[in-house]
Amino acid sequence: MLEATPLTEGWTLKHEGNALPASVPGCVHTDLLAAGVIPDPLLGLGETEVAWVGRREWTYETELAAANGHEQTDLVFDGLDTAAEIRLDGRLLGRTRNMHRSYRFDVTGLGGRLSVRFASAYAEAEAVRGKLGERPAAYAEPYQYLRKMACSFGWDWGPTLVTAGIWRPVRVERWSTARVARVRPLVTVEDGLGRVELRVDVERSRVEAELWVEATVGGVRARARIDGTQSVVRLQVPDVRLWWPHGYGEQPLYDVELALVHEDRTLDVWRRRIGFRTIELDREPDAHGSGFTFVVNGERLFARGVNWIPDDVFPSRIGRDRYRERLRQAADAGVDLVRVWGGGIYESEDFYDACDEFGLLVWQDFPFACAAYPEEQPLRGEVEAETRENVVRLMPHPSLVLWNGNNENLWGFRDWGWEERLAGDSWGEGYYLGVLPRVVAELDPTRPYTAGSPWSGSWEQHPNDPDHGTHHSWEVWNREDYAEYRANVPRFVAEFGWQAPPAHATLRRALPGEELASDSPGMLHHQKADDGNGKLERGLARHFVVPEGDFDRWHYLMQVNQARAVAAGIEHWRSHWPVCAGTVVWQLNDCWPVTSWAAIDGDGREKPLYHELRRVYADRLLTLQVRERGLVAAAVNQSAEEWTGTLVLRRMSVEGGVTGSARVEFGAGRRSVADVAVPRELEPVGPKEFLVADADGLRAGYFPVPDREVPYPQPEFEVALVPGGIEVTAHTLVRDLLLQADRLDPAARADRGLVTLLPGERVTIGVRGWQTPDAEKARSALYCMEPGR
Fold it and tell me: CA-CA distances (angstroms) from residue 274 to 251, 568, 580, 766?
C-alpha cells in the first residue's frame, strides 16, 4: 500500500547566516514575522518596511531520511512559491517556476540535507521580461511574467508583499509495483440515472504486473483492467438525489472510492466526493442581444454572486476553518455563486469542499488578470501544465460550474491601449481562445468554458458590451453616481462595487496609536485604489453633506453609501430578470485591513453592505423602481412558490404623517418578477415626502431627492436592553439606523445592518460577543441620518 508521510518538521530558513525555525506550509514573511525579524506588514506602515523581503533569495532546509521497504520513493511538493531549485545533499533534483502546480521528484534510495532555494520573484519575472519583451498591464509590477499569484505584487485593494516559500504541503510517498497517478471523474445524470466514468492513469515500477482498478459509489461497484498505464471504470447509480445550489434544494454528496489492485493486494486508493447535477450556460441570442444564464438541473437561475479574492495576503495561513467561516457568511447572505477571481490562486480542496456542502456555485477563473501575458516559452508550457493539473484536480466538485479564461484581459486589449503598444506581440489571446478551451474540452467536457470576464462571446461585439455575455460595470465607481446603475440592463453583471472603510475595531487594530482621520497616514496607506478617497468623497457628496473633521460621521456615511450603491444596482438588475441573469458583487472579502469594496473586512467583520446583501439577495425582494411609465413596485420572486399578497403603499412626510395610501393586490409567479404601478397621486414630490411599500414583512422605500436635500427631523428614539441584544423604539423617522457593535466590544457582532424606522416602530437588534451589556453604551454606538448631515 502506498505510504505518505508529511514532511513538516525540522525545516529552517536561512537569514543573515542564521537558521530560523520555519513552518511548512508557510512563507518567508510569516517565518520572519514569527522570529521577530520583521514587523507585522499588515499593521500601520509595516508593508513598506518589509519590501526588501521580496527582492532576496531564500533557502529552506531540512533532513530527509533515506527510505527502505518500497521500490519507489517520491518527494512531493503540492506548491512551491515560485522559482525554486531543489537539491538533496547537493544533488539537483529539479527546478520549478510555477506557484500553481505540484511537483514530484524521485528520491529512491536517497537521503541527506534537503534544500529548497527560492530566487526572488522579481528577479525571475524581470529575466523573463528581458527575454520576451515588455507587455502592458494595469499595474507597474511584473506579475504577468511568471506563474504566481498576481495580487502578491499588490492590487487596488491589496498590499505589495511578494512572497516565497513552501506554501502548500510537502510529503514523502513510498510505493511498489504501481500507484494512482491521476483520476479524471466525468459525472453526468439523466432521468435520475447517475453515470460516473473514472478515467485512470497509473505510474508503474513494474511494467509486467497485472493491475486492476475497483470502484464504488452509491452502493454500486465496478472493476476494470489496467491496459498499460490507463483504464476506464464506468458505474451507473440509479435514483440519485440531485445536488442543488443554495436556496434551490439540498446538496447530497456521494463518496467515490477507487482502489488500484495487484493480485490480492491494494496498492493505492483514491477517494473523493461527487454530486449529481446538470449544468448548462445559455448564451443563445435573443431580442435583447445574447444572454448568459446558468441552468442547473433544468432550472434557470438569477445568480446571486460575489467575487472572491485570496482571504489572506499569505494564503498558507488560510485553513479549513477559515474557509468555512467565510463561505458560511456568504451562504447566510443569500449568495449562491462565488467567482474565484483570476488575480489570485486555484484555492485548496477545503474551499471547494465547503462550496460543495453549502451549495455555492463556483465560477473559477484561470489565473490571468489585468495584463498582457506573453505566450512564448517558458510561460506557455507552464500554463498548459498548470491548466491540465488543476482542471483534473477540481473536476470532482459539483459546485464547480464554469471555467473562465481570464479577468479583463480581452477588454484591456481593446480599450486600454494595449493593441497599439503590443505591435503584434503575443498577449494571451492564444491562451483564452486556444489552449484553455482545448484543455477543458479534452479533460472536462461536462462544464462550460468562457474566454474571459467581461466577454461578449465574439470579437464581433465589444468585449464589455452590456447586451452580450458578461459585463463589468466600473464607470459608475470611477466617474459617475451610483444612480447610473439604472441606466442599462446588462445580461450578466460579473463585476461592480463601491468602496467603504472597514469596521472601526478593525481600523483600531490595524492602525495602533493613530488618531483616525480620512486622510491620516495609516488611512491613506490602507487605501490602495487610484484616487480612492477622492472617489469616495465625490460619491458621498452627491448624496450627503460631507462631514469635516468628524471621522466617526464620515466613517458611518461611507458605509451607508456603499450599501446604498450596491443595493441600487442589484435591485434594478434583479427587477429586470430574466433579461439580466446575475450579479457578482466586487467583492466578498479582504486579504488585510483596508478601505475596499469588500462586504466582509480583513478581520472578518461584516460591513453594513453584508447585511444589505442579505436583503437584496433574499428569495423575495420588494423594490421601488422608476420606469418610463412612472414609479413601480417590483415584487421579485426567486422562490419556487407563487408570491401573492397585498401591497400597502403610503406616501409620507418626513415629519411622520401619512399623506396618501393605497392597497393593491399583486401576484408574482415562481422565479419571476411582477411590476405593480404606483398610482400617480402617491408618487412623492419634493424633499419632504417619501414613499413606503410593504408586503409580507418586506419593505421598500423611495426618496425622490438626495439625502442632503431631505429636511430630516432630529431623530428621537429609545434604547432598551432585551435578551440577546437591544430594542430601539422610534418616536420620529429614523433612517438608516446602524449599530456599530464592534464599538461596544471588538468581539461583538450585530445580526442586522441598516434599518429605517417610522414613528412608533421598533426593532430588536441581536448582539453576540458583548461582555457587559449597557443601554447607554449601546446608544453611543448607534448612528442614523440627522438634519443637515
Answer: 10, 38, 30, 38
Question: What is the per-residue pLDDT for 400?
Answer: 98
Catalytic residue from among 408, 495, 606, 689:
408
- Helix, strand, coil shares of the chain, percent, nearest 5, are 25, 35, 40
408 is catalytic: yes
Note the residue count of the chain: 789
Q: What is the rounded radius of gyration, in angstroms, for the C-alpha atoms of the chain?
A: 28
Give the strand pairing for 293-296 and 299-300.
Answer: antiparallel
- The 8-class DSSP code of residue 405 comes to -
- Single-letter amino acid, residue 360: L
Q: Which residues contact 57 (CB under 8 A, 6 or more apart)?
A: 117, 118, 119, 120, 123
Question: What is the residue-wise DSSP string for 112-140?
Answer: EEEEEEEPPHHHHHHHHHHHH----BSSS
Q: Which of 394, 375, 377, 381 is nearest to 443 (CA)?
A: 394
The amino acid at 488 = N
CA pair distance 610, 601, nearest whole angstrom: 10
Please tell me the distance from the alpha carbon of residue 86 to that of residue 106, in angstroms, as a whole number: 12
Instruction: For residue 108, give the 3-state DSSP assignment.
Output: coil
Helix (H, G, I), strand (E, B) or coil at 86: strand
pLDDT at residue 6, rounded to an integer:
97
Angle at 323 between CA 621 and CA 159, to 5 degrees: 95
Render pLDDT for 125-181 as a digit per residue (tens, 0 to 9): 999 999 999 999 999 999 999 999 999 999 999 999 999 999 999 999 999 999 999
Q: Measure CA of the first residue to CA of the last residue in the chain; give whole Å.
A: 71
CB 624 within 8 A of CB 633: yes
Q: Are 745 and 777 in contact (CB under 8 A)?
A: no
What is the band of 67 on the pLDDT scale with cuts at 50, 70, 90?
Answer: confident
State the pLDDT at residue 494. Answer: 98
Neighbours of 789 (CB within 10 A): 16
pTM tops 0.85, yes or no: yes
